[in-house]
Design a protein that fits this description.
Layout lengths: L5 E2 L10 H7 L15 H20 L7 E4 L2 H16 L5 E5 L4 H12 L3 E5 L9 H7 L4 E5 L13 H10 L3 E5 L18 E3 L12 E5 L14 H4 L7 H16 L1 H22 L3 E3 L10 E6 L4 H10 L2 E2 L15 H5 L4 H4 L2 E5 L6 H20 L2 H9 L2
Parallel strand pairs: 1-11, 3-4, 3-5, 5-6, 6-7
Antiparallel strand pairs: 2-8, 7-8, 9-10, 10-12
Helix pairs in contact: 1-8, 2-8, 3-4, 9-13, 10-13
Bound molecules: pyridoxal-5'-phosphate.
Pathway: Cofactor biosynthesis; iron-sulfur cluster biosynthesis
Cofactor: pyridoxal 5'-phosphate
EC number: 2.8.1.7
């Protein structure tokens, strides 16, 4: 049998869709002008950026002047937090976030702590959900910002964003959300959800790497993060990443237009994976919320198994997956997200994340479970802990 390649690590990155690449290509070569110049190849670029901004604004129910192109999710998160801290420090120096944020948020918060800001890191429940009463209780007169991710990149839990936005605004506090994983996977309406700032990234939605946008609601005072030219209405200097912007808009347009049908199909495959793993592999625990869950996320902990060993054996079968988050693999610390939902270290170490796409068929899912079953069995057979456990439970 021909060896398959099954990519189930779409939360780490995604391939650029052919239509997206086709839209980008002319802007590398014949339409290469600097959007700030005045000759016609440049005004064509300028127009293309204007159109891209309009396309993107529509996907989250806002207007184009609130969309600021950045170099991706990490820059958007850094900008939102650091610039808010800077602009609102006279009002207060307290920020609320959660223990399960991406490192682009957590490490930025740690940096802000060194600058005299106080950060409250909210606990989450065993499914990864923020507790709204604890959030409300954490708000103080000097709280300037609440930053809670829309959906978690490891366990796929979707947070109650509209409720959090409502609480933030009732208390006169700005609300930022890292929507890198949620964007085009779940409907987002920044108006209805009271979102003031929102981070996204192109390469998580079948667009190119190194591009994303930060949505900033009109009236939010934050200033430029990159100083220089007057691009992005004086708020983000640097010659526009024209090809990236075109690619991001094309990817966003496609993924928004087919969101309903695509995610319905993904959910079928996701639930098939979950059902088969739960039924056929003992001592396996699903991480994250069963219902409030990204359509493409499956995350399990397997007792008596080491995550990295699973990944290597899966890779030998042509299956790309991840344990914990891609950014932390390579380190021996278990994922901060899995610890925050209460998993003991040794269980967190045996975790596997499968993040699917519309390219994954039911047959692919079956191939993965068939192999995973064998791999988990094989690794357990070599585990002294498992041997002890079986003896004791005979
Ligand atoms: C991938 C990711 C980021 C970082 O985005 P980049 O574009 O790679 O910088 C931030 N937050 C979350 C939740 C992510 O999944």
């Amino acid at each position: 049998m021909e060896k398959k390649l099954i990519y189930m690590d779409n939360a780490a990155t995604t391939p650029v869709k052919p239509e997206v690449l086709d839209a980008m290509l002319p802007y590398f070569t014949e339409k290469f002008g600097n959007p700030s110049s005045i000759y016609s190849i440049s005004s064509e670029n300028k127009k293309a950026i204007t159109d891209a901004r309009e396309v993107i604004a529509k996907t989250i129910n806002t207007t184009p002047e609130n969309i600021y192109f950045t170099a991706g999710g990490s820059e958007s998160d850094n900008w939102a937090l650091k610039a808010t801290a800077d602009a609102y420090a006279s009002k207060g120096k307290h920020i609320i976030t959660t223990k399960i944020e991406h490192h682009a948020i957590l490490h930025t918060c740690e940096y802000l702590e060194t600058k005299g800001f106080e950060i409250t890191y909210l606990d989450v429940d065993e499914n990864g959900l923020v507790k709204l009463d604890e959030l409300t209780a954490a708000i103080r007169p000097d709280t300037i910002l609440i930053s809670v991710m829309f959906a978690n990149n490891e366990i796929g839990t979707i947070e109650p964003i509209a409720e959090i936005g409502k609480i933030a605004h009732e208390h006169g506090v700005l609300f930022h959300t890292d929507a890198v994983q949620a964007y085009t996977q779940v409907p987002i309406d920044v108006e209805a959800m009271n979102i003031d700032m929102m981070s996204t990234s192109g390469h998580k939605i079948n667009g190119p790497k190194g591009i994303g946008f930060l949505y900033i609601r009109k009236g939010v005072k934050i200033k430029s993060f990159i100083h220089g030219g007057a691009q992005e209405r004086h708020r983000r200097a640097g010659t526009e990443n024209v090809t990236g912007i075109i690619g991001l808009a094309k990817a966003a347009e496609i993924a928004t237009a087919n969101m309903k049908e695509r995610t319905a199909e993904e959910i079928k495959v996701r639930d098939h994976l979950i059902e088969r793993i739960e039924k056929e592999i003992p001592y396996a625990k699903l991480n994250g919320d069963r219902v409030k869950r990204l359509p493409n996320n499956v995350n399990f902990s397997f007792q008596f198994v080491e995550g990295e060993s699973m990944l290597i054996l899966l890779d030998s079968k042509g299956i790309c997956a991840s344990s914990g988050s891609a950014c932390t693999s390579g380190s021996l610390d278990p994922s901060h997200v899995l610890l925050a939902i209460g998993l003991p270290h040794e269980i967190a170490h045996g975790s596997l994340r499968l993040t699917i796409s519309d390219q994954i068929t039911m047959e692919d899912a079956d191939y993965v479970v068939d192999n995973l079953k064998e791999i988990v069995n094989h690794l357990r057979e070599m585990s002294p802990l498992y041997e002890d456990f079986i003896k004791k439970n005979k």
